[in-house]
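User: Can you model how iron/sulfur cluster sits in this protein?
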Amino acid sequence: MAREHKRPYKVFRVGGRSFPVYFEYDEQLKKSYPAYPDFEKNPEYTGEGNPFATAEQESCIHCQPVSPGQPPPGDCGGCGWFHREQTPYDPIGICMCEARRGNKTDA
Ligand code: SF4
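Assistant: Here's the modeled complex, given as structure tokens:
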């Protein structure tokens, strides 16, 4: 009964990589939404060893506010280490935190 073919949403290019994002259907909400990569579950890194992250990803212990004096961010999108390449609203970026670097993937 369920028609399960992936509908493409967008391809995001970050750090020399391409991340195709597809719509997924939520049975409970009865609507489709763009399903971004889960980098917490399946980490991926730039050639320099910086981890990719999504803006909506839950913040980690190394998070820091964008400006001093602000409360710690709840997600990577609000973190001072989160680097967006194209626009201030990019949903996928790179974590520039030194403490999280080092896990290189050589393609
Ligand atoms: S951008 Fe990096 S340092 Fe900041 S919360 Fe996300 S993973 Fe942690």
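A couple of observations from the model: Residues 53, 59-60, 62-63, 76, 79, 81-82, 95, 97, 100 surround iron/sulfur cluster (CB under 6 Å). The chain is about 0% helix and 30% strand.
User: Helpful, thanks.
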